[in-house]
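Readers outside the structure-tokenisation community will struggle with the description of the input data as it stands. What matters is that the chain and its backbone geometry are given together, residue for residue. For illustration, here is how one protein appears when written out as sequence plus structure tokens:

…
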Amino acid sequence: MSSEAARRTIGFIGLGHMGGPMAANLVKAGYSVTGFDVVPAALEAAQAAGVAVAGSSAEAAAGADVVITMLPAGRHVFAAYEGDGPGGGLLAAAKPGSLFLECSTIAVEDARTAHKMALDAGHHSLDAPVSGGVMGAEAGTLTFMVGGTEEDFADAAEIFEVMGKRIVHCGGAGAGQAAKVCNNMILGVSMIAVSEAFVLGEKLGLTHQALFDVAANASGQCWALTTNCPVPGPVPTSPANRDYQPGFAGALMAKDLGLAVEALNATGTAASMGRAAEEIYRHFSLNGGAGTDFSGIINTIREASEGLAALDPDA
């Protein structure tokens, strides 16, 4: 146990598929972690992993040196920060000068608002969304994209290193979310392109392995191909080998691409591929793909290619 872990207490709000393993890894590293989630099963799993569970988010944050939030959307972060239940919100419950690590994936402007709320309440704040999925959360190999001051980034470094393998300081407040939204726009577009290529390869008589062996070692190489390959076989650990169980769910990709489109609109950025990917994944999520891995988009493309479905969201 490091001296850092021995002296700092952590309140962890949001113990779901990502937050639960992250909190468990902090406990393993010797931190005193008190957590809260609105889902009883999440609380039970966290408690089994050594997390002390609280009856409310405010109770989890009471007296904490560090408060970590991993929540679905910006509105949930604001509600948790301000609070209207027992004990009030996180900002009031945490001791003065606490460090808030906002690890949810939310809109860039929401991240900047949350940052200001924390500072106005006398705390320090970093936006620190993650990449790496549930497997990365469990293994402690997440990538953290961090926005905030250099001083606060340095203060949080040891905590991030428990939960992640790569930690990148991207700039000031909101920069972590900006990096996340750009990264996931690339991921969504590239998964669609990889999936379309495999369906085209099938129609041209290529085996999945042959196309993979070429593209994985040529200019088509990308993470969507070599790590999250959308067809079973070439990458045994990809979700395609377990009937597209996530992984990274289609609903989450649709959400993240929606955030990307918000940012595109706010900045006046021309990005036809990003907008098209958002439409495709929104349609996928609304039509049975929400709970499957986002690489399952290949099945929608394959069906559309056989005339059994349409990718057009208005069809």
The longest helix spans residues 175-203. The two ends are 57 Å apart (CA to CA). Strands lie at 9-13, 32-36, 52-53, 66-69, 99-102, 124-127, 130-131, 142-147, 164-171.
